[in-house]
Amino acid sequence: MVSESTVSSEANDATLSIPADPSLIDGQYDVRLDAEDTVGRTTTTIEKDAISLTSEVNPDAVGAIGEPVYRAPAGGFVEISTNGEYMLIGGDTNGDGTPTQYFDILYVEEDATMINTRLVGTNVNSSRAYGEGVTSYAHELGADAEPDGVFENVSFQGASTLADFRENVGISPRSTPLQTGRYRLLAGANGQVIIEDGAPTFSSPIGRSNLVLTQPQLEAVNTYVLPPASANEEDVAGSSEEATESNTIAAGERLLIELQATGFTGATGIDLTTDSTPESIPADDIARLLNRPEGVEMDLSTWYYDGAENTESDLRFDGASSGDLYVIPDETTDQWANESQIGENTEIGGLYIVVDTRGEAFSAPSYGDVMEFETRYESPAGERYLYQTVGQGQQPPPFNPAVSPNDGVEHFPYFGDSDTTVSVNSTIEYMEPSIQYGRTTVDDELIVPSESDGQILGSTTMAPGTEATIQFIDQSRPDPELVTIEEVIIEDDRTFTASADFSALDSGDRVTAEFYTAGRLPDNRVVDRRDVRVVDDIDNIANYQITNLTTPVEVQQRSSLGAIEATINNTGELTGQQVVHFSIDGEPIRNESLRLSGNGSATLDLSEQFVTLPVGTYEYTVQTDDDEQTGDLRVTEPASGATITSEDTNTATTSSPLDDNESPNENDGNTDPSGIFGLVGVSGRDVALGAALTGTAHVLGYWA
C-alpha cells in the first residue's frame, strides 16, 4: 500500500498531500491538481509529471508474516515467510472501494511457503499453487464447500462457505491469472473471518504484509561458448570462467544461451513448491511451456540470404536428455542491469540453456550460416488472455484459455488489450573448427625452428579454454621421430602459443603436424593436418632485400621510366611472397606481388610508365616488407614538342594506386588502376605518345 505522499510546487509554495491508498503500488504517476479561484471564478491547473510513490508498511504490523512487502513478477514463484495457523490472501479494497478480485484462506503448517502465482486461483491442488505445508480452502475443499478438516474452525461472517462470502463482498470468479498489483497477506490467531470497512479481515489479526506482483519483463538474450563436453558437465551459469561471450561457435562446442526473462516459469510445470530452486530444470518442462497456449515462444533458426542454400538449425526441448540440453535457472537475478525491475523476492529471473552441439537436441546449420535464438511474448492487438467462464464456487483450468490464437499468435497472460508482441534475440555464426598458424610458407606449410625451445603461434575458431594437442611426425626416417605438445590452451582471444624441443628435427626433413582435440566430433578428432618446413634460422625465413638500384636517373619528359629498376633478392631459407612498391615523390606508381624461392632474385623496372612531370628533381622509392631504397629522378625538357610546366596544371586529378594484392598487369593490359592514367605526371605508353604527337592531350591535369 502506498503511504501518504506529498507533492510540492516551489513556484507557488503549494503542497499537495496524497492520502494512503491500498490500490496504488510502487511506480511512476502523473498528478493533476485543479484549484478554483472562488473570487475570480477561474480555475488553475498544476501538473506534476511522473512522481514516484513508494509502498511503506508499518514494520510493527508485519508480525507473523515476516517482511513488509514481497515483490516479484506475476507468473513466477515467490517465497514468503509464515508463522500463523491461518492466513488470508487478497480481498482488501481498492481506492474506489471495490475489492481486490481474489480472496482465499490458507491453513499454514510451515515457516515458509513457495507460491506459484500463475496457478493461484485455478483448479489445481494446494501443493501445486502454494507448496507443501500449506492448504488452500479454495484449492483443496472448493470455495462452495463448508468448512471442514483443517478449516473446521473457520467461519465467515454472514456466509456458510467461501463462495458465498466472496459473493457478499463483491469478489467474482477470476477471468485471468493473478495480474500485476498488490495482494494483502494477513495472518490470524483464529479462523474467524469478518467484514470490516467493507473488506474481509480476521477477528484477531496477528500480522500483515503485501504481495506485490510486478509486470513480467523480457529483457535480453546473450550467447556464450564453451569447450566440447556434455551440456550437464558442470555448472556453467553466471560468472563461470569457462564461458566466453561470443558471436561465433565452432562445431562440437557447447552453446550457452543466457535468457533474461520473467513471468513464464509458473507455467512450465516446474515444481518449486516442494523444494528450493532446483539446480536444473528438465528440458521437458520448457517443452511443456512452449506447447501450451501461453504466448511464450523460443526458437533457434537460421538466417537466410538471397541466393544462398542454408540448412535450418533447430533446438528441441521435447525429450532432450540433460547431457544434450541442460537448463539452469537463474536464482540470483544478478544478470539484470536493473534488478529492481523484477523485485527483491524473485525466485527465477531467467534461464541459462546449455546446448551440446554434438547432441540430438541440436540440428546444425551449414558452416558459415548465422543462427538466431529468439524469445517472444506474443499478444494480438486488441485482445487479451481470458480464462474459461466458471461458476462462483468454481476455479478455471489454468492452461485452457477461452481465447484462441489469432492468425497463429497466442496470448501472453500478462498483456492487456493494448499490448502487442515483444521479442529479444541474439545471433551466432556456426563455424568449422580451423587453425591459422602465425608462421607459414606461401604454400601454407607450418614453419618450425630446429631449436630446443622452439615456439608455435596461431589462432583458431574454437572456444577459449579448449585443450588441444599438436603432434609432429618426421616421416623422412625409418623410425619416425615424434615431437608432441600435450597441452595447448586456447586463450580468451582465441590465440595459442606452444613450445617444444624441436632440436631433433633437421632442416629439409619431411615432417607432418597434426592439431587435434579430444571429443570434439566422433569422425573429426584431427582439426588440422599439414606439412612442416623445419628451418635453422627462424628470423631469416624469407627476407626481401633491394640491390642494384640506379641513381640518379635522368629522363626527358614523355620518355619511358625504364631506367628506374631494382633487383629484389630473397636472402631467406624459404620461398616467400611480398608486394614490391614503386613510388615517385610519395605517390604510388606500381605495386607488384613477387614470389621468390629461398636465395632467389628478380629485377623489376618502370619501363611501362612514361613521365609527364614538369622539369625538376624528384625522389623515387622502392620498398618491400624488409627493405627500402631511394634514388633521384631528374626530369629534363623533351628533345621535341612542347615543354610541360607547372603552370599548365588544370584541375588535376589523382587516381588510386594498385591494391597490394593486385598484379600490375591485371587491369586489362594497363598498369594504371583507373584504366587511363597511372598518376599525376606518369602515364601509360599510348597516352604519353598521343600527347607528344598532338600537343593537346590532357594528361591528368598537365597540357603537353
**Main sheet, how many strands, which sense, barrel?**
6 strands, mixed
Our count of domains comes out at 4
Strand content: 35-45%
Multimer state: single chain
Rg over CA atoms: 40 Å
The dominant shape is elongated
Instruction: Specify the structural class.
Output: mainly beta
Q: Determine the N-to-C terminus distance.
A: 92 Å
Q: Overall mean pLDDT score?
A: 81
Strand order of the largest sheet: 5-15-12-7-8-10
Share of helical residues: under 10%
Number of strands: 46
Tally of contiguous helical segments: 5
Low-confidence stretches: 1-5, 7-12, 22-29, 37-61, 649-681, 683-704
Written account of the structure:
The protein is mostly beta strands and 704 residues long. It folds into 4 domains: 59-214, no CATH class; 218-379 and 415-430, no CATH class; 435-538, Immunoglobulins (Immunoglobulin-like, Sandwich), CATH 2.60.40; 544-703, Immunoglobulin-like (Sandwich), CATH 2.60.40.10. Helices cover 5% and strands 40% of the residues. The protein has 5 helices and 46 strands. The strands form 13 sheets. A 6-stranded mixed beta sheet has the order 5-15-12-7-8-10. A hairpin with a 4-residue loop joins strand 41 (616-623) and strand 42 (628-636). The longest helix has 10 residues, at 685-694. It is elongated and about 125 Å long. The relative contact order is 0.08. Mean pLDDT is 81; it is low at 1-5, 7-12, 22-29, 37-61, 649-681 and 683-704.
